[in-house]
Specification:
The structure holds 2 protein chains of 2 kinds. By secondary structure, chain A is of the alpha+beta class. Chain A is built from 11 helices and 9 strands. In chain A, the strands form 2 sheets. In chain A, strands 1, 2, 3, 4, 5, 6 and 7 form a 7-stranded mixed sheet that branches. Chain A is globular. Helices cover 46% and strands 14% of the residues of chain B. In chain B, the strands form 3 sheets. A 4-stranded mixed sheet of chain B has the order 1-4-5-8. The longest helix of chain B has 30 residues. The model of chain B has no long low-confidence stretch (mean pLDDT 93). The chains are: A alpha+beta, B alpha+beta.
Chain lengths: 368, 395
């Protein structure tokens, strides 16, 4: 019985905190926010050197072969720093489904490049309904002599604008949902950047007109696995973001004075801050378990991933609301950094299933 | 990270489970405080704790020289889990076991440990806590009960209130003012008072549940030997905080929430509204899952703290939230059950038509008492903010 981070995991987390506070301060995040593609290439080249890009990629494809709990350390710090760019979608989601369902040949090409930082992948699940529910997926996959072809329009695809390949969820003739790998530069693929509210993120629509695709193995289970991994990854980012928002609000409350005292001496602010802590700490333990369950393939891995996603996204939204409020007027300005996390919380909340959607999954899995 | 128990621990768990299956008292005791003002209840409750102790299932982690077994915290947590699982009766010596005992182990003199700890384990001496006073609730350090030194004794005068179990306790761990001139936190001492001493009057208070669970305790020239002082004179506030830390962890313990949630879920499945079980009502279903997630998070939070304890890590801000989160969660669970029962929630537990054996109306009230006792949620939030987040003090 040992339910805590290993020394290596703690070191990974600390080194990620140190690296990102040096290389990815909010001045840098804002510079990337103002770019068209939202992708900090130099930062990502350094990340690849640190081994983060291929952290969960098997060693034979040039990765470190580590698990989701290890990755959660980096994701949490990425959330803390509001790190921009496709890391979560490429090095966690695309990497995880390729690892599980990619052919040797496909993985030699994409997984190796991904681990080396030479390719970016992403995943395309959602369509016009704005939901990850399989019922709302209408993109069609058909097979002819030359292989699979995809037709349909994917929406809100993270970083499709800079991706080299896209993992697409589409329905077969029999109505089953499979995952397919599409070359982003292939004929029949049209990518249009959408105007995002959270500028630390980019999303696009991806139109597929007979786009050539390769099917990943694993069938419908792989789609479910993708949702689980995404839930844990977004939850980890949310954990770090909530920590940052709390820290900023608390620090501000110690220096801002009103009525002749630091505002942090008022119980209204103390209670707001304490409520964030009370939400956050049990959720942290739950996230650890959710990541660990992904690594060990525990029977409750899906259920606990859904729980962590629902809980941490709720906490992130509620926590950033409170943190903005604790700042008062300054927190509402563009100049102050608080809105970076405030908006990212909303992005995370909807990204890969709303809290209500995941709660319904928990109810189904728990046979309510 | 490794969530597996060793094969020895698994074997131990099965042994404990088997013991509870065979030894649970069949009547007269319940997991809540029902009947606590009844003499027969007291005798039975003492026998129950003694039996549990003889089986080796009380305070397993305490040092051997004071009647413990010096086992690791995992064993104790296995016993706690199994007690909850078996719906084992409330331990009458709970305050001694979970609050005073650990405090004495850290702060007591060797003589005090020898004298008091073994009898806490066996329920030969039952303890109550003398902290709150009519004028000292959340502002505990403003307490006025006075202890003056006369020869080698203290003479105590004053009043305590909300004293749970004082009606049957043999001893009280008590905060008294020994230096009225000093700043309020520095004039307090921590002492052990014999509840059978002349000059002590216990007057029961009736709780909103209708039970006589807590009391007023009056001290009129009560003589307390000087050796009953714990730690140094006027340094009681530090000791009091150690006890409060143990109390908050006890009140916020995660193990009961899981059982309560399972009971709530079973209740919701059994109730039909609009022709379908309440679990299929989309709004109530969401609410149930939200509660389950909070319960589950607290379970992992507890295991995390158990690991920190084994690793020898000092508790940080994460330990300060146990009481706040645990007690509010239990009250939210009970409130959801009351809502689930619809008009049946109007009934007291004594009506024959009451649902789920009348568990919820009592639990709904009692759980709110625990949101207050040991420092209200508001006070807990101040503690988290000031001690955990280092936000400036307002006082």
């Amino acid at each position: 019985m040992d339910f805590g981070l290993s020394e290596e995991q703690q070191q990974l987390k600390e080194s990620a905190r140190a690296f990102l506070s040096g290389e990815c301060p909010t001045t840098f995040v804002r510079k990337i926010m103002a770019t068209d593609d939202g992708y900090p290439r130099e930062l990502y080249a350094q990340i690849a050197k640190l081994g983060w890009s291929g952290l969960v990629v098997p060693e034979k494809f040039g990765g470190a072969g580590l698990g989701m709990l290890d990755m959660a350390m980096i994701l949490e710090e990425g959330g803390y720093a509001a790190m921009p760019g496709p890391f979560l979608f490429s090095s966690v989601l695309a990497a995880s489904v390729l690892k599980l369902g990619g052919s040797e040949q496909l993985n030699s090409k994409w997984l190796t490049a991904l681990a080396e930082g030479k390719a970016i992948g992403t995943v395309a699940v959602v369509e016009r309904a704005g939901s990850i529910d399989p019922v709302d997926i209408a993109a069609v996959a058909t097979k002819d002599g030359a292989g699979w072809r995809l037709n349909g329009t994917k929406m809100f695809v993270p970083y499709a604008n800079v991706a080299d390949f896209i993992v697409v969820a589409a329905k077969s003739d029999a109505g089953e949902i499979f995952l397919f790998v599409v070359d982003a530069k292939a004929p029949g693929v049209t990518i249009r950047l959408l105007k995002n509210l959270d500028l630390t993120r980019r999303v696009s629509s991806v139109e597929l007109k007979g786009a050539p695709a390769e099917r990943l193995g694993g069938g419908t289970d792989l789609f479910a696995k993708l949702i689980d991994v995404a839930a844990v990854a977004v939850a980890a980012d949310s954990l770090g973001g909530t920590e940052r928002a709390l820290e900023m609000a608390v620090e501000y409350s110690k220096v801002r004075e009103q009525f002749g005292k630091p505002i942090g001496s008022f119980q209204a602010l103390k209670h707001a801050a304490a409520e964030i802590v009370a939400d956050l700490e049990p959720a942290r333990a739950m996230l650890w378990y959710a990541a660990y369950a992904q690594d060990t393939g525990a029977a409750d891995a899906s259920r606990t991933a859904a729980m962590a996603k629902a809980r941490l996204c709720d906490i992130y939204s509620r926590g950033t609301d409170r943190a903005v409020l604790m700042h008062g007027g300054i927190g509402f300005t563009w100049e102050h950094d608080m809105h970076l996390w405030f908006k990212r919380a909303r992005f995370n909340e909807s990204c890969f299933g709303s809290p209500a959607y995941h709660r319904e999954r928990v109810a189904i899995l728990g046979a309510y | 990270m490794d969530l597996q128990f060793t094969s020895e621990e698994e074997a131990f768990r099965l042994k404990v489970r088997g013991w509870f299956a065979e030894n649970m008292p069949t009547s007269g005791l319940s997991a809540d405080s029902e009947g606590r003002d009844d003499k027969t209840w007291l005798a039975r409750a003492k026998v129950w704790q003694r039996r549990l102790y003889d089986a080796g299932y009380v305070a397993l982690a305490w040092p051997k020289e004071y009647g413990g077994q010096a086992l690791d915290p995992v064993r104790q947590s296995i016993v706690n889990d199994e007690m909850v699982r078996a719906k084992a009766p409330y331990l009458v010596g709970g305050l001694g076991l979970m609050m005073l005992g650990p405090t004495l182990i850290s702060w007591g003199s060797e003589e005090q440990k020898q004298r008091y700890l073994p009898k806490i384990l066996t329920a030969e001496e039952i303890w109550c806590q003398g902290y709150s006073e009519p004028g000292a609730g959340s502002d505990l350090a403003s307490l006025k009960t006075r202890a003056e030194i006369v020869g080698d004794e203290f003479v105590v005068n004053g009043q305590k209130v909300w004293t749970s179990g004082a009606q049957y306790a043999d001893m009280m761990f008590c905060l008294v003012r020994t230096d009225p001139e000093a700043p309020k936190h520095r004039g307090i001492s921590y002492m052990l008072i014999d509840m059978h001493a002349p000059g002590i009057t216990v007057r029961p208070l009736v709780q909103m549940t209708g039970d006589r669970g807590f009391n007023e305790v009056f001290f009129d020239n009560v003589h307390v030997p000087r050796k009953n002082l714990v730690a140094k004179l006027n340094e009681g506030w530090i000791v009091a905080n150690a006890t409060l830390f143990h109390e908050r962890n006890m009140l916020g313990s995660a193990s009961g929430s899981e059982q309560r949630f399972n009971r709530l879920l079973a209740l919701a499945k059994s109730i039909k509204r609009g022709g379908r079980p309440l679990t299929e009502d989309p709004v109530f279903r969401q609410r149930l899952v939200e509660l389950e997630i909070r319960v589950e998070a607290m379970r992992y939070h507890a295991i995390r703290q158990l690991t920190d304890q084994i690793r020898g890590k000092n508790p940080g801000v994460e330990a300060m939230i146990n009481k706040l989160v645990g007690t509010e969660l239990n009250h939210d669970l009970a409130s959801a059950a009351m809502e689930a029962m619809g008009d049946y929630s109007m009934l007291s537990r004594d009506d024959e038509a009451v649902l789920d054996h009348g568990y919820w109306p009592y639990e709904w009230m009692f759980s709110l008492g625990l949101v207050i006792g040991g420092g209200t949620s508001h006070i807990q939030k101040n503690i988290i903010a000031e001690r955990g987040l280092k936000m400036p003090k307002s006082r």
